[in-house]
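A quick aside before the break. I want you to see a complete sequence-to-structure record at least once, exactly as it would be stored in a machine-readable document. Don't worry about memorizing anything.
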Amino acid sequence: MELLRTPDERFANLPDYPFAPHYLDVDGVRLHYVAEGPGAASPVLLLHGEPSWSFLYRKMIPILAGRGQRVIAPDLVGFGRSDKPTAREDYTYQRHVDWIRGLIIGLDLRHITLVCQDWGGLIGLRLAAEHEDRFDRIVAANTFLPTGDAPLGAAFRRWQRFSQDTPIFDVGKIITGGCESELKSEIVAAYTAPFPHDTYLVGARQFPLLVPTTPDDPAAEPNRRAWDVLRRWQKPFLTAFSDKDLITRGADRVLQQEIPGAQGQPHTTITNAGHFLQEDKGQELAAVVLDFIARTSM
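That is the input. The structure line, written in tokens, reads:
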């Protein structure tokens, strides 16, 4: 597998992102993660999606760590400071799951509070179902776990077509379009920092094609098995969706109805926030996570 590694200088002096880099080798691929807060505390695992990286969680990390939480925020392979395979076929749904599984096992994370958005949920919900003993609770934000047995909606299909047809995959423009707030130029530049050239964008281009949209997709059956577990999931499960995200709209109701651990939880809708609600309302989402941990740790 041929890998690219974004030069370190691309990550120098990013706004509100002072976190020291940490790295773990997973099957020959270097995976980057942020680690903040007391090492002995139970971890809050923050999983981002497409086409962002751990920079998306920069508003939440110090709030969570400041309240005594151990925060682990990895960059998915192909994003951020993690290695970037150069061939599309090197990116599969299963490999993304296995790479983050490698992080969880490599760091021996237990009693995890999972916070997942976008592809962070497609990966994180699979892993929670496959490693129930390592997870204590889940916060799902603008995400779902598709099996290909039901259509994903017009908004997703438009995004999938755009991701393949657009001649320029402008990460900064995509992030901006998924936010309700106006992003400063230095914030937009930080989101594009991992991708100095189109050759670094192979994973970002491939991601939308990995979402299972047909029942015979390679990821469909593993996701069905994960749903079998989630439909028996008794541990605390919270949805914290935003009100302006067209792609995942309505998925929160399905999660609430299907997952037993979601019953009686203080599900919330974060207002005036788009798909990237961590960017629009990161402080508010952090407060929701802290309240949920406090409520369910008693």
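Two observations worth writing down. The two ends are 47 Å apart (CA to CA). The chain has one domain: 3-296. We'll return to this after the break.
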